[in-house]
Amino acid sequence: MRATWLIKQGARRLIIFFGGWGLDERSVNHLTSDSDVLMYYDYRDVATGEAPDATGHDIVDVAAWSMGVWAAGVSLARWGLSPRRAVALNGTGRPVDDLHGIPPALYALTERGMNERGWEKFIARSLDGEEEQTRFRSCQPLREMGERVEELRRVREQSTGASPATSWHRAFISREDIIFPVENQREWWRSRVEITDLPGGHYPFFRFTSWESIIDYGNR
């Protein structure tokens, strides 16, 4: 698992973001913040991620998207880190699961068909129409296809165990998400945390302008 600073400006608040499968920091390069923002991604070996150094930060918050929701749960438990506020977007603690995640049969089809054409199809299905597809061109990751394929396999292999207990404060679910089944997300979250519906597809970040608008939603 890799980490990179999206914004580092000596702020008192640290926002830790766990990104989705196959992507990097370019996937959220339009979001602004008054906070420091540290991104984790590349879940080929989720156990290798080092805990962030929160020295100098009075507040630590977490946002996690898609496969990053599972990775965040595993990592926060391993680090013994309890954020003030943790927000999940279009993901669950069981990413490959018939009831609470992507059904294994569908996941296997995606895994077998993952190549450049399969990636383009996946991104198109994650977005809400041609306007978002055009806008996402500047968000395309600079990662090799072989790396993405390996990550897809390793997420499946690593996520078979019980999901660690993590205190989440809100779950965003996009109503037209066809990557991570909406009803499976609702089944996972409905007894755990407040759910907020969003319009659009699996990629939700064009609905927001800043990291604060995600973390502080409904709390101002």
Average pLDDT for all residues: 95
Number of helices: 7
Lateral strand order in the biggest sheet: 1-3-2-4-5-6-7
**What CATH first level would be assigned?**
Alpha Beta
Strand content: 15-25%
Question: What is the assigned CATH homologous superfamily?
Answer: Alpha/Beta hydrolase fold, catalytic domain
- Unreliable residue runs: none
CATH topology: Rossmann fold
Q: Please state the structural category.
A: alpha/beta
Report the span from N to C terminus: 33 Å
- What oligomeric state is this? single chain
Main features:
seven-stranded mixed β-sheet, alpha/beta, globular, 7 helices, Rossmann fold
Report what the structure shows.
The chain is an alpha/beta fold and 220 residues long. It has a single domain, classed as Rossmann fold. It is built from 7 helices and 7 strands; from the N terminus they run ββββαβααααβαβα. The protein has a 7-stranded mixed β-sheet with strand order 1-3-2-4-5-6-7. The radius of gyration is 16 Å and the shape is globular.
In short:
With 220 residues, this protein is an alpha/beta fold. It has helices at residues 67-79, 104-112, 116-126, 130-135, 145-158, 182-189, 211-215, and strands at 2-7, 13-18, 36-41, 59-65, 85-89, 170-174, 195-198.
Question: How does the SSE layout of this entry go?
Answer:
Blueprint: E1 2-7, E2 13-18, E3 36-41, E4 59-65, H1 67-79, E5 85-89, H2 104-112, H3 116-126, H4 130-135, H5 145-158, E6 170-174, H6 182-189, E7 195-198, H7 211-215
Parallel strand pairs: 2-3, 2-4, 4-5, 5-6, 6-7
Antiparallel strand pairs: 1-3
